[in-house]
Structures are given as structure tokens and as C-alpha cells.
Design brief:
Blueprint: E1 3-9, H1 16-19, H2 22-29, E2 33-39, E3 52-53, E4 63-64, H3 66-75, E5 84-88, E6 93-97, E7 121-132, H4 135-142, E8 146-150, H5 159-164, E9 168-171, H6 180-192, H7 202-206, E10 250-251, E11 254-255, H8 265-283, H9 285-288, H10 295-303, H11 306-312
Parallel strand pairs: 1-2, 1-8, 7-8, 7-9
Antiparallel strand pairs: 2-5, 3-4, 5-6, 10-11
Helix pairs in contact: 4-6
The protein binds S-adenosylmethionine.
S-adenosylmethionine (SAM) binds next to strand 7 and helix 6.
């Protein structure tokens, strides 16, 4: 089944770059995902194709009007919306479809907010004021059939879009972008690579930074294999992935950690787990507070001063 993304934007051609390379481009070419952009100016009715207006109450800048956005989303309830660009990696060009695009008939239209089945569809407003977009959000979205991404511009979007149309507002970080298109591309990329079959090996998306937990709280094995080696060597349960090295073994006088070349797989597992913990402590100590940790992890982190630093903070 094809997952479908609809992107509402005033810059539909913005997406030709991000969608034309690598994993995203392949996922489109194989039909795993369908991406359709909708130009909000095609849902205006004045000569100047106006999508914005001044803010009530005064203040700087302009605000995206609600009507073109509502009209566009309501058109997605029909099987064949017009005024779209469908991305086709087979041709490696953006195909501007003047009329109807061929929709995947198994994908339902976007229902009104009150009747929308949130286990299958989601309408998302990209916004600096949104909830943080995380790997867990990407996993949630990857389980849906259809996702609509609304890209704001200017000073933002009339709040009635968030209230009456969108299921949630998502932010890709604590900074302000000039438009939602980059954020939509980030959400799209992070989600599509999690779809079954998109990455060469299914474990690639499970065992990486922010990966799913594979150590349960109160695990009687303390997260170890029967011979006492850490089972998890990766970013299980939200920590960062371990550092990677490749040839040459000595680069500009800096050798790789010896353990990685010695062929002792138990020692490599233990080193990777500890390197992942150390890196998380260095760059994202906030993640350690919620990560499932084994007793051995805790001892290792204590040796690096983690718990003492927390107690003092
Ligand atoms: N006045 C808004 C504020 O202070 O929150 C910022 C508006 S921003 C200049 C224009 C558009 O960029 C937003 O409507 C949103 O769609 C997008 N945007 C900006 N920062 C974002 C972020 N961190 N995550 C997601 N979208 C963002």
C-alpha cells in the first residue's frame, strides 16, 4: 500500500530538490510513497491570487488566510484533486499536472476534522509554536496511510487552521524558519525512511539514534545476553548511536579504537554500548533521564560522573 503525503504550500517547486535524491527518490519511484504538492494560490479567487492579509489587532507582516487552506484540504476529500504537482522520481522531473492526477484509489480522501480517523490520517500544521517533532512522531506518522502537511509563511497562519483543520502543530526545533517548507521536507524524510522496505535493512531504522527500546525496565537479564554481554549496542530507548569508523585504521595519526579491529564481538558490543552512553552524556544528557538503562549502564555513567552531576543540578 502506498503512503501518501499532500503538501500545501505557496512554493510547490521548493520540493523538487529534496525529493529528487537518495532514499526519498527511490521510495517514490517504487511506489512506497506518493507525494503531491498543492499550490495554495490555486485556491484563491482574485486577480492577484492573494493568499495573505494583514493581522487583526495590528502588528508587523502578513498572515496566511484561512480560506485557501480550508478550500485546498476540502478538495482532498475528492478522489482526484486538481491543481497539484505530483513528484515522480522515475522521470526525475516534477510533473505539472494540469488536470487530474491519478490517485491511489485505496487511499481515502481527507475527512473533516471531527470525523477523521487519526489511526489512518493526520493533518499537520508546521509551526514554531508546535509540539516538538521527534523520532517517535516519525514512527507514529509512518504507520498512517495519509499525511497532510501545511506550510506556513510570513508571520504565520490564521489560528483557525490550527483550531479547526489541523490535528496537530509540529515544530522541527526551537528556532524560527522563514517558511514551513523546510520543516515539511524534514518530516517527510524522517517518516519515509521508516516505511517498510525503504531502507535496505529493516534493522537500520530500529537500531540508530533515538531507536526503540530493547531493554525493558526491571529486565531480569539486566539487558544482557546469557554470557553477560550487553544485548544492546545502539541507541536503544532514545540514546544516541555509537560512533562509527571505517578505513583507514589510522587517519592522520588518529587510530581507531583497538577493540574494533580485534575481532572480539562481545568486547565490541560492550565498547559500543559504553561509547553510545558516553556520547549521549556529552551531547544530550537530557536523553539519559528517560532512557531504559541497565545496572551496568548506570555503573558506567556513574564512573563518568553523570549521577553526581545530576544530583548537584
Ligand atoms: N511568527 C511565528 C512565530 O513566532 O512563531 C513565526 C512564523 S515563521 C516566520 C513562518 C512559518 O514558518 C510558520 O508559519 C511555520 O509554518 C514555519 N516555521 C517556522 N519555524 C518553524 C519550526 N521551528 N518548525 C516548523 N515550522 C516552522
Amino acid at each position: 500500500m502506498t503512503m501518501r503525503f499532500d503538501i500545501l504550500t505557496i512554493f510547490p517547486n521548493f520540493f523538487s530538490g529534496p525529493l529528487d535524491f537518495g532514499i526519498l527518490s527511490r521510495a517514490i519511484a517504487t511506489g512506497t510513497v506518493q507525494v503531491v504538492t498543492h499550490d495554495l494560490r490555486n485556491f484563491t479567487h482574485d486577480r492577484h491570487r492573494t493568499v495573505d492579509d494583514r493581522p487583526f489587532g495590528g502588528g508587523e507582516g502578513m498572515v496566511l488566510k484561512p480560506k485557501p487552506i480550508f478550500d485546498c484540504i476540502e478538495s482532498l476529500d475528492a478522489a482526484n484533486p486538481s491543481d497539484t504537482i505530483e513528484f515522480s522520481s522515475e522521470q526525475h522531473v516534477n510533473q505539472i499536472d494540469e488536470g487530474e492526477i491519478e490517485c491511489n484509489k485505496s487511499i481515502d480522501g481527507i475527512a473533516s476534522k471531527s470525523t477523521r480517523d487519526l489511526t489512518r490520517q493526520s493533518v499537520i500544521l508546521l509551526s514554531a509554536q508546535g509540539k516538538p517533532f521527534t523520532q517517535a512522531t516519525a514512527r507514529h506518522l509512518a504507520a498512517l496511510d495519509r499525511v497532510v502537511l501545511i506550510c506556513g509563511r510570513y508571520e504565520g497562519v490564521d489560528e483557525r487552521v490550527a483550531d479547526l483543520l489541523a490535528d496537530e502543530e509540529l515544530s522541527i526545533g526551537d528556532y524560527v524558519l522563514s517558511g514551513g517548507e523546510l520543516a515539511a521536507a524534514v518530516v517527510l524524510d524522517a517518516t519515509v525512511r521508516l516505511l517498510p522496505g525503504v531502507l535496505g535493512h529493516a534493522d537500520s531504522s530500529r537500531y540508530e539514534s533515538f531507536g526503540v527500546p530493547d531493554i525493558q525496565p526491571n529486565d531480569p537479564t539486566d539487558g544482557k545476553t546469557p554470557d553477560g554481554v550487553p544485548r544492546s549496542t545502539h541507541g536503544a530507548g532514545g540514546i544516541l548511536d555509537y560512533p562509527q569508523y571505517t578505513r583507514p585504521a589510522d587517519f592522520r595519526g588518529t587510530p581507531i579504537p583497538e577493540v574494533l579491529a580485534a575481532g572480539d564481538h562481545s568486547a565490541i558490543r560492550r565498547w559500543r554500548r559504553q561509547a553510545a552512553l558516553a556520547k549521549t552524556l556529552r551531547n544530550r544528557p537530557d536523553l539519559l533521564a528517560r532512557a531504559p538503562l541497565t545496572d551496568e549502564d548506570r555503573e558506567f555513567l556513574a564512573s563518568l560522573g553523570f549521577f553526581a552531576a545530576r544530583a548537584n543540578s
